[in-house]
Design goal:
mainly alpha, 83 residues, 81% helix
Length: 83
């Protein structure tokens, strides 16, 4: 499987199905399919994998915060409607 084909397949996915985790998974697959030829490339790929893990962690936190804020907003709207 070529990197170019993988990238085209990723870009051609339906826009409705995409979210941050879809992009992260696509990038993880692309990085995992790369074969470094030098130690420098190997270190760069390792750094990219580390950064991607951090991005995934932050995305999960943001998603949890958004869910919590949406719940609070719903509660506030309900309490405002009762008044």
């Amino acid at each position: 499987m070529s990197l170019d084909k993988s990238w085209r397949d990723f870009l051609n996915e339906s826009v409705d199905e995409k979210n941050i985790f879809t992009y992260i998974q696509g990038l993880q697959e692309i990085i995992s399919n790369l074969k470094p030829k030098t130690m420098t490339e190997k270190r760069r790929l390792q750094l990219a994998k580390t950064h991607l893990r951090e991005v995934k962690r932050f995305a999960r936190r943001m998603n949890n915060d958004i869910d919590m804020l949406q719940e609070k907003l719903t509660i506030l709207e309900e309490s405002k409607g009762d008044q």
